[in-house]
Amino acid sequence: MQSYADVRFRCFGFDSDMDMESVRPTIVKSKSDSIHQGDNRKKKSTMSSRGVLIATDSIDSIDFDVVETFGRSPKTPPIHIDLQHGKFIKFQCKCFTDLNLTKCECKFEGSDSPLLGAPCSTSKIAIDETSTDDGLPNEISAPYEVPQFPIEQIEKKLQIQRQLNYHYLADKHSVTGDFADESVNVVDHELVPNFQRVSISGEDTSGVPLEDLERASTLLIQALEMRSRYMSISEQAFPTTTLRFLKTVHESQRFNKIQYEDRKSIAGESLIRKISLPMILLPPRDHPIHPPTETSNPWDIEFPSDTNYIIKTVNGVFNIFQSEDAKEPLLPNYPKLKDFCNDMQIMCTMIADGPLKSFCYRRLCYLSSKFQLHVLLNELRELASQKAVPHRDFYNIRKVDTHIHAASCMNQKHLLRFIKKTLKNYANEVVTVTKGQQMTLSEVFRSMNLTTYDLTVDMLDVHADRNTFHRFDKFNAKYNPIGESRLREVFLKTDNYSNGKYFAQIIKEVAFDLEESKYQNAELRLSIYGKSRDEWKKLAKWAIDYNVYSTNIRWLIQIPRLFDIFKSNKLLNSFQDILDNIFLPLFEATSNPSKHPELHRFLHYVIGFDSVDDESKPENPLFDGDIITPENWTDDENPPYAYYIYYMYANMTVLNQFRKQRGLNTFVLRPHCGEAGPVQHLVCGYLMAENISHGLLLRKVPVLQYLYYLAQIGIAMSPLSNNSLFLNYHRNPLPEYLARGLIVSLSTDDPLQFHFTKEPLMEEYSIAAQVWKLSSCDMCELARNSVLMSGFPHMMKQHWLGPNYTREGVAGNDITRTNVPDIRVAYRSETLLDELSNIFKVHQHPHAIAESP
């Protein structure tokens, strides 16, 4: 018969500097083969175990002994081993038991370098001991340790252990030069954290018939290939793990490198070793936790030479031509409208497929249950890992508010104080023109019969309440302080009579608060409406003239879907006018930066585009390739959501290719998506957006939710905002998404309307932690996700998350910066690999499915 048992070893390392022992436990699980000889009263068992001992700069020697085997605790004399700095020792032990006799033979093999090259010494030690477990039943079964030393000595040992762990991590990451080859990764993967894993054995563990599994596999891979293509063309991110699996579908020579074995080997380190690529880890000493402070002028940006290319629009999409007479564009590679419509039809058919819905729903339920088991089995280990990290907790890890609008980035008390202060200091400054007559700030308030003494938070009336639920019109009215659009124009606009002076001041006050907190950052949305060609120029001039810049802030440009309003007011003739006003200045600034210096400087700190408005407005969510082009869209009817998103994506794709060719920063698409309205909005987001905001409707579409998981699409969620507008807090799917492994982050949306404190992002985290009982590990994982999906520069993220944050799994995590335990990161990575292997191992090409009866 076969059974499982534990062999536990204990290593005492002698510290030459502190003259005391430091405990370095190594727990190794092994497989036991029990062999019956004669009758059942006589049983002989054999166990084989292996592991690695690591020498550090402060350890001269290690005493190694067996502390538990076959459920016994033999008092064996330790094996003394002299060490040199940097030496790695591999050991292999065989333990035998026959009734009460326990015997262990241990073989040690070492090397003078982490590469484990040629063995430098070999020794064999046999240990014979009689079990002494008669009077120690509790010592074996109890999950706690009985103190044997004074508390001061124990605490000192733990402190030394933490120091040794830190020194070892530093040594591990500083491997460079001749040692930076593939064999370094063997050591890395052997040190995957030891935690309780849940493995499912058997040939088929999906729970659905094989033909349904094959069909689901084909459809899901087809959907992943679609998104991969859209992301690649537009220079947006796609997860490397999923991409590597996709490459195996069409590259048979690499397909054999991935072995889809029995599920027992898939769950754990073995699959990571098989699927991972060689990597060279960067030393953390080159990337301190805080990025270097910028001392130069942030607007001192390098200008590339002008190109004088010709920019033309073809069916609503801008492109670059060498000359006026050129017929072929220089960058023709973008999805045509007809291709996009076909892909949308395929995806919409896919999400309605019955067997696929069942399969995805089952997998999502499995992911939820698996996470609950993981928490039950490893919660204490994760907490212990966090406690072992010095000077790092939830308060001093980096967090990014990934969805916040600049016009409402302050809380209501902050706005009230700012209005009072401005009215006191700039009362006689002309701020607006009404009916051809100039009005000072004091005259504006006098016309409303108000003084600074009268102003209160309640009178501002900018906070959302129960009356805004499912009333987006009432919510929009909350942007007007005291119900006056004039005050919104004066204080919360960049384009007004005073050129956005007061708005710049309050933004800089918010930025100062973020800098004071040090660990909080924000991605503020500024509006470009597309009403006129000079909007970009005015916005860039506003930012540079008032020096609206902070290392804690980056900009997204939100484009409201308001064509019907502009058309009814005769501000535009066709939808093409909006596209011209939004994208033509960007192409011109990219082609000829010297002619648009302010815009060129400002775009350096813009990370992407957002599409905003009420998603619940009625519309025709589907259209075909025969839909009229933007220059012919002259109706008063507003185009559907997908029409807006496609033309934003297509123009951004060509712009990104052009800017990358010029050595400039590129942009991403991160629209509001799935807050309300039809699920087709989420299909658009899946195909064309790098990240989305809200994503509430994913809870109703299991196929899309599973695809968002497999493609690791970031979702910025705002539970307090949703609670006031569309979905009660307790029904919010964020904890469910987090448990299943979707990349979700917490964001504030509109602190002016939804929050009360000076730190709205911390308020969002605190309420979520209380209501959903999130652990410290959950909170830190959300914070890490927010940095990963943010648009802050790569170099900044290397300081915040670690120099190797782009690596997969544990190699990409630095707990000393993120406070996320390696156990949690390893679980997420292994689970994703498990799901992908479950799909790809049964894949067959689409035509095989079509031909099947």
From TrEMBL:
Residues 28-49 are annotated as: Disordered. GO terms for cellular component: cytosol. Pathway: Purine metabolism; IMP biosynthesis via salvage pathway; IMP from AMP: step 1/1. Its EC number is 3.5.4.6. Gene3D superfamilies: 4.10.800.20, Metal-dependent hydrolases. One of its GO terms (biological process) is IMP salvage. The keyword Hydrolase applies. Its cofactor is Zn(2+). Belongs to the metallo-dependent hydrolases superfamily. Adenosine and AMP deaminases family. AMP deaminase plays a critical role in energy metabolism. Catalyzes the deamination of AMP to IMP and plays an important role in the purine nucleotide cycle. This is AMP deaminase 2.
